[in-house]
Amino acid sequence: MTGTEETNQANHVKGELLHLIYHNEESLYTVAKIKVIDTSLDLSERELTVVGILPKPDQDVTYLFHGEMKEHPRFGRQFKADQVRKEVPQTKQGIVHYLSSERFPGIGLKTAEKIVDELGDNALSAILADKAVLERVDGLKQDKADSIYKVLLEEQGVEQVLLKLYDYGFGLQLAMKVYQAYKLDAMRIMEENPYQMIEDVEGIGFAKADAIGQHQGLTGSHPDRIKAAVFYVLTEQSMNSGHVYTPTQNVILESQRLLTGPERVSEDDIAACMIEMGEEQKVMVEEDRMYLKTLYFAEKGIVTNLHRLISRGKSVEEFPESEFLKALGKTEESLGIEYADSQKEAIRTALSSGVTVLTGGPGTGKTTVINGLVEVYGRLKGLSVNPDDYKKDAQFPVILAAPTGRAAKRMSESTGLPASTIHRLLGFKGSQDDFEYGEHHQLEGSLIILDEMSMVDTWLCNQLLKAVPDDMQVLFVGDEDQLPSVGPGQILSDILEAGIVPAVQLTAIFRQAEGSSIITFSHDIKEGRKLSAEESAGSDLRFFPCGPLQVPDAVRQICQKAVERGYTARDIQVLAPMYRGDAGVTALNQMLQELFNPSKEQKREVAFGDVAYRHGDMVLQLVNNPEEHVYNGDRGEIVAIFLPKETEQNETMIVISFDGIEVSYSKSDLNQITHAYCCSIHKSQGSEFPIVVMPVIRNYARMLRKNLIYTGVTRAKDFLLLCGDWRALEYAVGRDDDLVRNTTLCDKLKQAFMEGTHQHEKTGVAKD
Ligand SMILES: Nc1ncnc2c1ncn2[C@@H]1O[C@H](COP(=O)(O)OP(=O)(O)OP(=O)(O)O)[C@@H](O)[C@H]1O
């Protein structure tokens, strides 16, 4: 429940700080009690709580807040500020008081008076405009004058930046973000190159930066303006649509759409700027394609490294067939399984190649092959594949990794071997490109197996391959029919399509033998077969028809039934394709929290924006936190909430357990998590759940696609409970042709290998 609005945005409150209740240095979330001096509100009280993203308020300063009055469900009436400005002292007395305050060390009452006597009521702006005016103050030493100017600049810096940004129509929160990104440089950057903010400040798009640009005279076809639009289009295409490059003609058209204004910006002008950007190497242009620089080089890096790793495949140790069969037989015996021909082929290929790809849908035996490969590998190489045999310093020869924490955990559970996220394996240090392992510090080991490769994007794949040494064999495992990676590229399908790597596809379904309708249903979707609600149903798959408005109720009832049968929130995952709407992730999460973890008098909770986090809530991590070994997509449970008086830091702390790893969050860190009862299908990739509940309705239309439904359905291990409109499901499964991403990996791989072969032929190496 959010508070009710009482007044409109135009209200203001002028006041002085009484005391600071809360201020977070990083997020700037502030709660302060103020003494009201003046207000446009009809207020009886003379004290008021003000909340907002604010610079830390000082004592003895008058602030003017703009915003609205809100009724907080727990804390009562509060003024929510979305603009703040410090009232610069205007009177002689006010300025003397200000200059002689503790902020200006070494300036006493006398000196302050002298300054004001000399410079008048405008003293502060006069000093800021030109610090040399202080030379006119009799007896004021240079170091004092310098210090006054410096403090004033710092004090007024935030104000000036904020004021300027308010003029451009920025809200307080975004204005503070700009200030935090640049501090006192903000004014300079805004004046010199406001478009820089698009890259540096989250939340600033082209239109916002352009509003400032217009004030600086960067109008119409100014090259800086056009280049910013081009760069913005290119970034959006990569980040939102997953393209590695954008056709130049599309860049021109999309940029033209952004560059609105009285003067039409011509295609020629845009094209000329694009050529310049290419020459300046700000972006990469190749034929009629334009790339972000990092993506161009990442793709290139993948080609180079795959070429390196595959070419040395000829030197991979070969084993006579008889030895292989013997090792395989022993493995089959110890695992109690008889491998199918395609599975045997997968193991044999992975053993004899530098790089191999193994694909297959759910239940086709990918994990079973990984297990077999590790064991056969150990037998043939005479190595132990028991991690207990490797003490501290000895490197276990087989590396297992996956893109998400959940997928890595699943891999580890199903193989009994250590597995980690790819980020952790590569020693990710928290910012893009900052990895411990790479070209100059490569991984140790002789075989690396990477699961869920369909989720790996172009940047991460490049970083990974750089870190693989020449003598390490690589097995990529994945299901190419799932959703592609969140980041740009479609690594797995491009590598497969290039046909330069031995690939084994598993198609026979083994889990079907155990009577799983989920598996059959998944494969029906994958193959595009006609789906029927009645025929698809089974003991582990049910469909509950309902209209869009009934979705929340249907989901609640399904979950309620599961709870009655002894399942808990940990076993049940509701999946929805979008966040907004009554049947979206946000609304369903609120409803499910009340079902699974309702508020109780004794149960602690912390309010954060419109949601409350309660003791016992299931939550989802939204960002990588390598220091704590918690990654985007990990699920955890709130196991403790401490009140400020119970913590050393004197602030509310929330402890979340991620499968035993306990991480503490302060209130401002809570933007790193969300409730996990319902999550998007994209976020569920790489995870499996005993029960999946998935509504499918026409309202999701824009999102409905075959690979989305397929990914959602294949998350269910024991039960898949669908609800909604069967026709919407059929519609989705029929849509699979418009999601191609623009990449050049496949072509460049083919080209590199053809050139490589020619060179070998020329030098006569190819024949051996
Ligand atoms: N050759 C085989 N003979 C008998 N059972 C098999 C064989 N291969 C796999 N299975 C069984 O089929 C089931 C699915 O296998 P596995 O878990 O390896 O598939 P998967 O492709 O990894 O599936 P998912 O992607 O859903 O995890 C398991 O119970 C496994 O024991």
Automatic annotation (TrEMBL):
Protein family (similarity comment): Belongs to the RecD family. RecD2 subfamily.
Domain AAA+ ATPase: 352-514
Gene Ontology BP terms: DNA recombination
GO MF annotations, alphabetized: 5'-3' DNA helicase activity; ATP binding; ATP hydrolysis activity; DNA binding; single-stranded DNA helicase activity
Binding site for ATP: 363-367
UniProt xrefs under PANTHER family: DNA HELICASE B (PTHR43788:SF6), DNA2/NAM7 HELICASE FAMILY MEMBER (PTHR43788)
This protein's encoding gene: recD2
The name this protein goes by in its record: ATP-dependent RecD2 DNA helicase
Protein purpose: DNA-dependent ATPase and ATP-dependent 5'-3' DNA helicase. Has no activity on blunt DNA or DNA with 3'-overhangs, requires at least 10 bases of 5'-ssDNA for helicase activity.
Catalytic activity: ATP + H2O = ADP + phosphate + H(+)
Record EC number: 5.6.2.3
